[in-house]
Amino acid sequence: MSFFAGYAESIITPSLERPVYLAGFGRNRRATSVHDDLYVRALALQMEKVSLVLAAVDLIGLPRHVAQAIERGMQRTAPEAQLVLAATHTHHGPDTLGLWGPNEWTRGVDESYLDWLEQTIAETAVKALRTVQPARMRAASTQVTGVARNARDPAILDEELSCLQFVASDELRPLATLLVYPCHPEVLWDDNPHITSDYLHMMRFVVEQATGAPCLGMVGALGGMMTPAMPGHAFEDAARMGAILGGAALTALRDAPLQTVEQMEYRRRSFTLPLTNPLFQMAMRVGLLTGPLNEDGSLTTEASLLWLGDAAIFFMPGEVLPKLGLQYKAMLRAVGARHAVLVGLANDELGYILPAEAFLYPDDPLNPGAHYEESMSVGVEAGPKLTAALEALLAAALP
Fold this sequence. Notes:
By secondary structure, the chain is an alpha/beta fold. Helix content is about 25%, strand content about 25%.
């Protein structure tokens, strides 16, 4: 059995010839310039009958029906392949969900850009599949402290940086590096008008300069919310955070053994959730948020699990709070994963996903106070339903 890896990327920065509403903070924040380009970075992984593309996109998030359309576009050329589309959740890219337009009643998505984006991501995924070559892997996990904090519950922190590096089997030359860290890309603050991927820009640059190979960044259980703990909100603060993370990754990978991947298994599980959040219900009624609902008003989402060598990666459809994230990592390690990796905002963006016992919907969701995360969550059942999905995936895909 041979393991293969390939890579492709495309710039997805929107043109400023039309208004670009930046997502993540307040409404009507229009982009005035581009500090660094936004990308889709696609990593193709293949082994036996499994063909999977992991695509990191520098966007706030994409709803499931858009992710499904992009996967179908890829499958018109590569019908055997599956796609995991994980948003980096940068707060300085275009609105791709609909909540950050010029006012509270106007959708902020440029539909022509979204159509182009769907095609570009699908084509980039196909290009990655066409570049695959025999590969091996390094895996490492390291604690990076002091760059992120939990603004909701400071005592609960996940500061683990997960690192996977894929290496050409014949030359031992790095092909691509995947890094996952649980923190919002929001070092730059709500007055920033410049398009940027925030701290991920420098994190990837540091690794790429040292390895000569591309680097993908994804985010983990960043709910809570896990936010940068830098001294300021300037570009130099974002660069400093990215450099710390990139340097930590290089150190961890330097000491990681090179392994022959003898196992690759990927499974998905879809599940339904009641949509109980009245703000989300209203946003759907007025057309800010789009996507199909089931006849009973619930929505369908998905989670998935990838076993790759001694690493297990759980892909989650939203912003999971770190208490749940730490629980999920423990579940993965309990069944044999040496490296337990969580990737958020994967193939859907449901907003925050909380433990049920911590969920308290605010009396006034427009002024939620300490319960902002509940005001931006589909409902109390999101956490238990996601936990049940992981339990089912583990039962079906034990190594």
